[in-house]
Write a sequence for this structure.
């Protein structure tokens, strides 16, 4: 590892389309989307729990589908639309999923919540009235340690009902 | 009541669901340096030399420190000040911090750590309880405690044990093992420090700003008034962020050296090394029952694998023995406990601190006794339930107790008595109890355990309290209590919490103490405030209920000047008259009962949990949504421990310090939970409230094991219940051996002579029951 | 947080150019498509490279012809698992793609990547610091196998879910090298070695997976893992079979995660041929299939139990094949 830091850093300007905003950022090519979002774009709503693709905490939407920002390079995402938790509410108007999570106590420590909300939003876009098992399948890549998932399932069902 | 008991959203819910809550790692002030820590690659070794020169030469590296820079030892308990932020003499587990680097980028700091040369003299590691009990090959891990690598002994006896066993109709002995596991909060520990104007400020993901404050003062040799510790938004603790940690001290020191903000966020692997999780515990228990299944005497022995340092371990050791008596009426009880040091990351408090292990052993043991004497296990347990407002044989004071109601609720809802009898299907029942806060402080003092201030001005209310909301909703509980008293909504109440500069002391979010203790302090402060406001309003010829809060506050300010009140909470002095009685007493105990329904496959050994019914006596649900959330989360964590989670070691190393290999249940592995809230309205709790965050975990593992026995006729006397253990137990059953998987024996431990204590009169508090 | 090492990122326009770059750079460079296997391993410093060659040009669509269903190598596992043609004609493959890791990973991970996924071992899939503490192993930086210290070879485990199924279906891949293109059976992609586990040149790019199957072929994939998601297989059975009347006319059975390569259970295949899939046959076939499986103590749960479970997953797979034939399945 000590040899690596003597290497030159290749920096590139990447155009990132995040939450409907187009931003040009100059970043080291080896920096993951997670790092660029949090450290270069100050979008710290995207959290991280392992940086190895094992926990789902850093989930963002890429063209509407959940992917793990810890395993994505911005340079490979040109032309693709990124949505983070900051892009989920419409201004000060929360997304129905956010409202339902707040109302039912589906966020305890709140650390997995951004990733779970984005996964849930993606699910409801393709399947507006999912069964409980379909929700479980869709969210099976997002770990939560606080809730036991019960309130999360209830909140997604509540939001789906309201959105229908 | 207007807001107490209502399922209102948490006061910080919007921040959490919109990604705006600021966790420690989200902070990146200008000129922040990044810190990485070099850790020991050896489980047990003496440090011969550390050469940091190559690391210092790397461009971008601003500071490199070693143990010589932070030589003062610290530790959460005054009796075990045995940790250093960085070790320069000896390392005691793979992951023990040795050196730290602050650099302009994290990758440079990591590279610089790799460039530090440490020469070790490797010592024989001690990796098991058995090994720790024996003579060390090279040297002991710690230089205190003993003999050998024994850290702590406890030996207490209450009542006439021999007499109790003598009059028993049936006596049984069992041995159990509960494997260690870890908290695995989703948020990795993180801390960031600044040093400006001779004042250190630390933001940290901690459960206890106060203890971090004390440790920083001690190790950095700075007076407490020059240190400010602020709890950042918290990404999950479960007990894992309750000790002061090396990285918190390290970033503080590096900020002082460099004059720049310094941040350290542990990697997931490092979180497994920080640990302080569930102790692996071996248990032996012997119990006598009479003709009617009533317990006549119980003898309980535990051996805890403590890891390399003390942490909360002395308390943990007591906790493996003390709470047996607050669920079952045990007339004579002997407890012998022993904690050993091993070359593993230190164990400490995880949700249920020291009590899930004996609860598992005790519940299964009674289950087996019931089978021995041909009695329904639920019925045998019920016959032994403690009664409310009594004293246990070890002097623990029991107040409100909803055991019977909890039991009835889950037995009825699950249809336990009429459960379906098909191959591989089974149900199991278990109960538990937990503290609503420890009755004595970690460091001995006469001061309150929680303090709250309220300020009212121009219609606004602000509550100040040192309590740390770790996601359980303690801020919301404080707001709800104050709102209830002042006739407001929780959302109307501003909160300033967990900041040692601006908030009065609260001992933090551990031992399920915040609702009870900070809640009572808030209640006192709020009632004082209400009295002031009522007096001012009535002085103007109106009634409090007739005016707006803004009017009331203006009248109050006009009459009294600045409107501030304070409340505090000190637990009652109820500990028994013996040494060691400080661990166990609590102002109130919660109670839970649960039934687990499983299908177990004899071909694969796989156990599928179909449903969990759980009833929890929370005294009063200040917010039922939050209580349900705590209960459901506890069931989840209990199932994880029961079925898959284990912190295990191989060749001196943590076997799998990753989220992939440490198995935390996913959405697809979690079962349906039906929760019943039972309200017994405790006389001393705020509005009658007791704890909810830990107790409901405890009955889940034993209920699961009882269900597996019900399904397959084999006892799995060891947590977790993995399929290979089930298969092995079934193989033994088929061969006509004991139908069981578990530890074969309990080791010979040189416990000291027991201290004999006379039991109290059962009803000693009845005349003097205080009313709040 | 764990970060990637510094590297250069090359963006060739096609597979030929990518292969030339790889041939020129040698072991300093690696290909990256979805990155879901590569990036964690780079963060753990299991690979030491200074250049990545992006395969973003690879096709990511499914072309369903009358004989061949061609799946572009960059098709995500999610897309492949949900593609109606794949689901209908090669149900087992869709199942296998649909149980790889977790939903967000399947949205990034590609079918080509899953064919080439690195072999796994819980002495190897660890951070640089952990491996340094444990002592480096044969597969990376060391000279002994930590699982079997007396062994001259590496026992890392083939952990692809889709590879066994593709082999069972007699699938072909298109490989593009610096000097040309070739077709190869998927079975030829693997070698029984934990380190040199791929049978293709390192500079060859997998560009397409070609599934063909005789009419009436049924396929099933059963995966065993601890949790319902995220985990790699600890055992698995891929079966493709043609049933004539109620007799097995032809059958391929390939096991996952029990060796350094997808393990074809040829003896069981031969046993099954011409037999009815009754309970007895299934039990016996599973027994035969499980024999060559050799799980070691380098994955989740005990290897004894995993060995036992090979039988179970084979039985489950064959039962499902039988029930599909009876119209009970799907």
């Amino acid at each position: 590892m000590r040899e690596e830091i003597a290497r030159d850093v290749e920096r590139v300007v990447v155009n990132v389309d995040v939450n409907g905003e187009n931003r040009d950022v100059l970043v080291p090519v080896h920096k993951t989307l997670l790092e660029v979002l949090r450290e270069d774009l100050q979008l710290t709503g995207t959290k991280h729990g392992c940086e190895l693709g094992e926990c789902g905490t850093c989930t963002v939407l890429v063209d509407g589908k959940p992917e793990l920002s810890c395993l994505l390079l911005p340079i490979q995402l040109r032309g693709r639309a990124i949505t983070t938790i900051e892009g989920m509410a419409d201004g000060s108007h929360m997304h129905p999923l956010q409202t339902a999570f707040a109302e039912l106590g589906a966020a305890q420590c709140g650390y997995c919540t951004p990733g779970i909300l984005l996964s849930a939003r993606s699910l409801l876009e393709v399947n507006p009235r999912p069964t409980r098992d379909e929700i479980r399948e869709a969210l099976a890549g997002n770990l939560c340690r606080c809730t036991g998932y019960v309130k999360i399932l209830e909140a997604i069902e509540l939001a789906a009902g309201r959105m229908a | 009541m207007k807001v107490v008991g209502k399922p209102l959203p948490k006061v910080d819910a919007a921040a959490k669901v919109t990604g705006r809550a600021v966790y420690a790692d989200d902070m990146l002030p200008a000129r922040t340096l990044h810190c990485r820590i070099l850790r020991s690659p050896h489980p047990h070794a003496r440090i011969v030399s550390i050469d940091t020169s190559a690391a210092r030469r790397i461009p971008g590296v601003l500071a490199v420190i070693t143990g010589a820079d932070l030589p003062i030892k610290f530790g959460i308990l005054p009796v075990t000040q045995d940790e250093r932020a960085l070790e320069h003499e000896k390392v005691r587990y793979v992951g023990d911090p040795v050196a730290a680097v602050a650099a302009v980028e994290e990758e440079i700091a990591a590279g610089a750590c790799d460039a530090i040369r440490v020469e070790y003299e490797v010592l024989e590691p001690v990796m098991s309880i058995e090994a720790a009990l024996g003579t060390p090959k090279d040297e002991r891990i710690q230089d205190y405690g003993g003999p050998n690598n024994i850290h702590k002994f406890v030996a207490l006896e209450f009542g006439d044990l021999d007499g109790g066993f003598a009059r028993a109709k049936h006596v049984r002995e069992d041995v159990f093992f509960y494997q260690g596991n870890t908290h695995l909060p989703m948020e990795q520990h993180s801390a960031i420090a600044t040093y400006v104007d001779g004042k250190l400020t630390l933001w940290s993901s901690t459960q206890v700003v106060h203890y971090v404050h004390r440790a920083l003062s001690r190790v950095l040799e700075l007076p407490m008034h020059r240190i400010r510790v602020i709890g950042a938004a918290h990404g999950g603790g479960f007990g894992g962020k309750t000790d002061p940690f090396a990285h918190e001290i390290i970033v503080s020191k590096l900020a002082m050296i460099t004059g720049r903000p310094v941040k350290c966020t542990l990697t997931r692997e490092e979180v497994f090394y920080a640990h302080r999780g569930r102790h692996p515990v071996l248990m032996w228990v012997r119990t006598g029952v009479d003709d009617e299944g009533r317990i006549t005497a119980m003898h309980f022995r535990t051996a805890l694998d403590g890891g390399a340092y003390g942490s909360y371990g002395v308390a943990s050791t007591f906790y493996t023995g003390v709470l047996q008596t607050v669920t079952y009426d045990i007339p004579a009880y002997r407890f012998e406990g022993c904690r050993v040091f091993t070359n593993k990351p230190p164990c400490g408090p995880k949700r249920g601190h020291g009590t899930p292990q004996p609860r598992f052993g005790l519940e299964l043991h009674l289950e087996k006794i019931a089978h021995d004497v041909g009695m329904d296990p639920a019925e045998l347990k019920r016959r032994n339930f403690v009664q409310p407002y009594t004293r246990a044989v070890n002097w623990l004071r029991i107040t409100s107790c909803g055991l019977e109601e909890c039991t009835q609720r889950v037995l009825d809802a699950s249809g336990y008595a009429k459960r379906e009898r098909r191959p591989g299907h089974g149900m199991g029942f278990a109960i538990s109890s937990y503290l609503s806060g420890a009755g004595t402080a970690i460091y001995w003092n006469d001061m309150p355990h929680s303090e709250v201030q309220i300020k009212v001005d121009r219609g606004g209310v602000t509550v100040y309290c040192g309590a740390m909301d770790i996601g359980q909703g303690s801020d919301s509980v404080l707001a709800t209590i104050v709102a209830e008293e002042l006739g407001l909504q929780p959302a109307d109440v501003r909160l300033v919490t967990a900041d040692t500069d601006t908030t009065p002391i609260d001992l933090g979010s551990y031992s399920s103490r915040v609702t009870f203790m900070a809640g009572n302090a808030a209640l006192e402060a709020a009632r004082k405030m209400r009295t002031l406001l009522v007096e001012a309003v009535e002085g103007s010829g109106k009634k409090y209920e007739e005016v707006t809060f803004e009017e009331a506050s203006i009248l109050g300010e006009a009459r009294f000047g600045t409107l501030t009140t304070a409340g505090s909470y000190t637990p009652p002095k109820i500990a028994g008259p013996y040494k060691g009685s400080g661990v166990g007493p609590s102002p109130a105990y919660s109670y839970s009962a649960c039934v687990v329904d499983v299908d177990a496959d004899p071909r694969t050994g796989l156990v599928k949990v179909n449903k969990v019914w759980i009833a929890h006596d929370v005294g009063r649900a200040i917010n039922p949504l939050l209580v349900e959330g705590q209960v459901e989360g506890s069931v989840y964590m209990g199932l994880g421990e029961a079925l898959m989670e284990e912190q295990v070691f191989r060749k001196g190393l943590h076997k799998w310090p990753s989220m992939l290999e440490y198995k935390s249940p996913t959405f697809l592995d979690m079962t349906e939970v039906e929760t019943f809230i039972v309200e017994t309205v405790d006389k001393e709790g705020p509005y009658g409230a007791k704890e909810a965050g830990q107790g409901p975990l405890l009955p889940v593992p034993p209920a699961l094991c009882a269900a597996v026995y019900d399904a397959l006729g084999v006892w799995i006397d060891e947590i977790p219940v993995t399929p290979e253990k089930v298969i092995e137990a079934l193989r033994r059953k088929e061969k006509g051996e004991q139908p069981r998987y578990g530890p074969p024996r309990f080791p010979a431990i040189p416990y000291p002579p027991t201290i004999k204590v006379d039991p109290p009169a059962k009803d000693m508090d009845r005349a003097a029951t205080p009313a709040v | 947080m764990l970060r990637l090492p510094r590297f250069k990122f090359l963006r060739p326009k096609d597979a030929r150019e990518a292969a030339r770059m790889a041939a020129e750079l040698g072991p300093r460079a690696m290909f990256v498509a979805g990155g879901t296997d590569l990036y964690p391993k780079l963060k753990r410093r299991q690979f030491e490279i200074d250049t990545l060659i992006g395969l973003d040009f690879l096709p990511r669509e499914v072309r369903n012809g009358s004989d061949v269903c061609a799946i572009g190598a960059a098709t995500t596992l999610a897309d492949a698992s949900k593609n109606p043609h794949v689901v209908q004609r090669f149900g087992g493959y869709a199942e296998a793609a649909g149980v790889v890791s977790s939903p967000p990973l399947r949205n990034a991970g590609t079918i080509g990547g899953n064919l080439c996924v690195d072999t796994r071992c819980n002495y190897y899939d660890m951070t640089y610091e952990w491996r340094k503490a444990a002592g480096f192993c044969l597969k990376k930086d060391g000279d002994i196998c930590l699982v079997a210290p007396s062994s001259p070879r590496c026992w890392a485990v083939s952990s692809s879910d889709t590879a066994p199924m593709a082999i069972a279906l007699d699938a072909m891949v298109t490989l593009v090298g610096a000097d040309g293109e070739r077709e190869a059976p998927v079975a030829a992609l693997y070698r029984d070695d934990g380190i040199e586990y791929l049978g293709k040149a390192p500079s060859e790019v997998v560009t397409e997976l070609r599934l063909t199957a005789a009419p009436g072929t049924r396929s099933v994939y059963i995966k065993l893992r601890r949790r319902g998601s995220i985990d790699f297989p600890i055992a698995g059975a891929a079966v493709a079979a043609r049933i004539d009347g109620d007799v097995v006319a032809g059958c391929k059975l390939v096991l996952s995660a029990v060796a350094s390569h997808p393990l074809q259970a040829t003896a069981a295949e031969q046993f099954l041929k011409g037999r009815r899939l009754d309970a007895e046959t299934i039990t016996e076939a599973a027994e035969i299939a499980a024999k060559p499986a050799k799980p070691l103590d380098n994955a989740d749960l005990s290897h004894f139990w995993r060995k036992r479970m090979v039988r179970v997953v084979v039985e489950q797979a064959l039962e499902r094949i039988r029930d599909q034939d009876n119209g009970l399945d799907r």
Remarks:
- The longest helix of chain C spans residues 303-325.
- Residues 136 and 142 of chain C are 4 Å apart (CA to CA).
